[in-house]
Amino acid sequence: MRHRFLCILGVSIMFFGSFLLAQAQEEDETPQAGFIAPLAGEALQGTVVITGTTAAEGFEAWNLSFAYVDDTTVTWFLLDEGRSSVEEGVITQWNTTKITDGKYHLRLVLDLNDGETLVFIVPNLRVRNYSPIETSTPTLTPTRDPASASATPTPTLTPVPPTPTPLPSNPVEISDNDFTNALSRGGITVLVLFLIVGLYTSIRRTLR
Fold first, then answer.
1. Is the pTM of this model over 0.85?
2. Model pLDDT, residue 161
3. Are strands 77-82 and 59-68 parallel, antiparallel or unpaired?
């Protein structure tokens, strides 16, 4: 009798444990409310599909809005709203071409039947329809490998032949004309001297 009671108790515990495990797995598989896409800091262009889950316990309605990051008044602009719950699907689409390029926050608000609200925000979304998208990964500047770097070439001096500088004219240089004139003057002088000597000799002889 006691053995039979223990068997029934063991089967009951196993059944109850299996039931609790199934409930826990079912709760774990329930999608969490919130955004799936876009991601924080993502660059957006054109029409963006916003996905996520709005289904939550006591769900009544949802609304989507956006705000400009640099707006000090933190004004939210309604993007879309609805009362149908979504589980890991498309909530709405956002045409970003209707707003200026810049950084925006995207907010999902879930209204519950007990008056509570659930708020989810994707921050710093970069709308880039009319401006270039920044590179998220820094570009590395290639550095030269010292082992493969070529040595700095040593400049080779090429001798330049000196330009000959003309010497100044020699003031005592005698040209051909000067030589001829001097020779002529010398011959005349000698001839005159001979004439004078001859004339002197003749006069002397005459006086004797």
1. no
2. 53
3. antiparallel
